[in-house]
Design goal:
Elements (H helix, E strand, L loop, with lengths): L1 H96 L4 E9 L2 E8 L2 H13 L7 E9 L4 E9 L24 E2 L12
Antiparallel strand pairs: 1-2, 1-5, 2-4, 3-4
Length: 202
């Protein structure tokens, strides 16, 4: 009986230990499964956030592209406006420097360089025009190409001259012409002809 009782006890211990082992294994399995589910949920949440941020980044990139395209159009429009106003401002400034008895026949503007030709009733008046251009804060040193007598009766002298211009006054002050800052690359040609003793209109 004692031997049989000991065998039963051993069998019961084995059963109990087996049950405990199974319970522990099941508990560990459920715990790991729970951890795996939590990790998958975290990964899914982060993926959702990543997808949302990626969509936002794409929207921002598209917005930036549209903004850059619009800015280029605005810059182009502003540049065209400045180029259109350039010859008008230059002509206005030259008309202020043009003395009596001198008039213009032709003027061209190419890459910041002004070439003009005209006539005057005497050399002194033409010399005064050259001096006015020289003293104008918006023009560089003028170069008088030639001056010759075009007719004897009445005495008329022809001349041609070239110089560079800038919208920023050389002395840093605001000139009498009221020109404003702009681009100096205007490539527009303007021709004008006025009666002796008068100034060209703009």
């Amino acid at each position: 009986m004692d031997r049989a009782g000991g065998t039963n006890i051993n069998n019961m211990l084995l059963v109990v230990l087996s049950v405990i082992g199974i319970v522990v294994a099941l508990g560990y399995w459920f715990l790991e499964k729970r951890k795996l589910a939590d990790r998958e949920a975290t990964v899914a949440a982060r993926q959702t956030d990543a997808d949302r941020l990626e969509a936002i980044i794409k929207d921002v990139e598209q917005y930036q592209k549209r903004k850059d395209s619009l800015q280029k159009r605005i810059d182009l429009i502003n540049q065209l406006k400045e180029n259109q106003k350039g010859p008008v401002r230059i002509m206005d400034q030259i008309s202020r420097d043009l003395p009596d008895l001198v008039w213009l026949d032709r003027m061209s503007i190419t890459n910041g360089s002004i070439n003009l030709s005209g006539r005057g009733l005497n050399p002194n008046a033409i010399a005064n025009f050259v001096e006015n251009i020289k003293n104008d804060p918006y023009f560089e040193e003028p170069e008088l190409g030639s001056m010759s007598q075009a007719s004897v009766t009445p005495p008329v002298y022809s001349y041609d001259m070239k110089f560079h211009f800038t919208y920023a006054p050389k002395d840093g002050t605001t000139g009498t012409g009221g020109a404003a800052t702009g681009t100096s690359g205007t490539g527009t040609a303007t021709s004008t002809s006025t009666a002796p003793g008068s100034k060209p209109t703009t």
